[in-house]
Amino acid sequence: MSAWLPLTIAGQTQPWVYLSHGAANAMLAALVSEESGDEFRATLACDPPLALWLLAVAHQRGNDALRSVAALADWALANQAAVAALEPASPAPQRAEFSGEEACRLAALSVAVARRAANTAPLIADEAYLLGLTHAARQWLYRSQAQAPRARLPLPDWWRRALVNRKTTPQSGPAQQALRQALAEIGSPPAELVESLQAHWHWPGPGPAERFAALGRYLLVARQTAAEQQARMETEKLASLAELAAGAGHEINNPLAVISGRAQLLARDERDPERRRELAGIHAQARRVHEMISDLMLFARPPWPEREPVELSKLLARLVEGLVPEAALRQIDLLSNIQGGPLVVMADPTQLLVALRAVADNALQAMAPGGRLEIDARRHEAGIVEISLQDTGPGISPEVRRHLFDPFYSGRSAGRGLGFGLSKAWRIATLHDGRLTVTSEPGQGARFSFFLPATEPLAT
């Protein structure tokens, strides 16, 4: 029994790509073990439909720069959520005329063409190999009778120019020329190559392809549950900190007011300049502690938002305008984008701007000259708007990530200074029935995302 991976074209699942037992086994191993990277790369190098499917998935996620089997495998291993979400077509399409033997011979032919193309163009061997491996794309597809027979495949333009238009394009690059030469020289797959691929395409007994969907769904649910539990723990921890801050702030402010008042009284009657300076210093430091306590009290018991319809394009324009001087001083590029037309949320514009500015300031502090801060907004399903701030800073380690929204926590190891800004931003997000998340890996920047309930666009 064959299994098929769905391809999505224009938002609808149209054709399916053949899934071999060997490919399913390698993907299962990649999902459950971090030690299976080499096995996955080796599998991908001899599995044309799997390479096609991953090219399509990466293309649909905006990544068209993968021009080698190694790059494609590394992307898949780094984006396991895309693989875990995979679900073969159910009920599985029936294509009796496409036997395992035929699949094995077609795969062997594609591998032979890929190897010859790579040898013909050694300077671009990786790209030539991938083109040769995937040149018979439509032979790996299954379409129902109700589907368009020649729908445009969801694959990168560079692949389409090299393969789909190879007979009509007068100008061709070296990889395309190498592919043409390889196709002309190889008429049938070498017998020894067919034999070496038998185990991959003829799995003994019930193969893993039939079990792939269930395990993929299980792993996806497990990861989502773990993420939700982590978010819930963070929310409870910060709520506890807020309660502690409310009580401690009240208790500390009373003796602090006495110290500040006494220092002012003593300074008023003091004639010695040096002693007056010292008393002024006591008063200044007491005021500083008072400001910290005020911030802490704001975190614990902030004013309730005065909500109104806020059009995000205008709010983000104000945010960027305020960031320009600091960004110019630090030589940071600012980019802003609204996706999906007018986006409106019910929010307190002042508080929301304070929260966004706090996150943006944190990002600017984290980046070296020449960095980039991208601010955009988009609408998701179920009426949720995401406002994201993506920086190119040094990233955030897991240890720093656990404490990032704690009041006054210092993340200086990640280039992010001591302060209250991120805690304040988190608190404002929760007051708006939303949430603030961060996604980051060391050395790969950080993405802070506000998720807020959307409302209908303002009438014009």
Counted by DSSP, the helix tally is: 17
Quaternary state of the chains: single chain
Structural class: alpha+beta
- Beta-strand percent range: 5-15%
- Please state the average pLDDT score: 78
Describe this structure in words.
- With 460 residues, this protein is an alpha+beta fold.
- It contains 17 helices and ten strands.
- The strands form two sheets. Strands 4, 5, 6, 7, 8, 9 and 10 form a seven-stranded mixed β-sheet that branches.
- A hairpin with a 5-residue loop joins β9 and β10.
- α14 runs parallel beside α15.
- The chain is elongated.
- The relative contact order is 0.08.
Summarize the topology.
Blueprint: E1 3-9, E2 12-19, H1 21-32, H2 37-44, H3 48-60, H4 69-78, H5 80-84, H6 100-120, H7 125-133, E3 141-142, H8 157-163, H9 174-185, H10 191-196, H11 198-201, H12 209-269, H13 273-300, E4 308-311, H14 312-330, E5 333-338, E6 344-347, H15 349-366, E7 372-380, E8 384-391, H16 398-403, H17 421-431, E9 435-440, E10 446-455
Parallel strand pairs: 5-7
Antiparallel strand pairs: 1-2, 2-3, 4-6, 6-10, 7-8, 8-10, 9-10
Helix pairs in contact: 1-2, 1-12, 2-4, 3-4, 6-7, 6-9, 7-9, 12-13, 14-15, 15-17
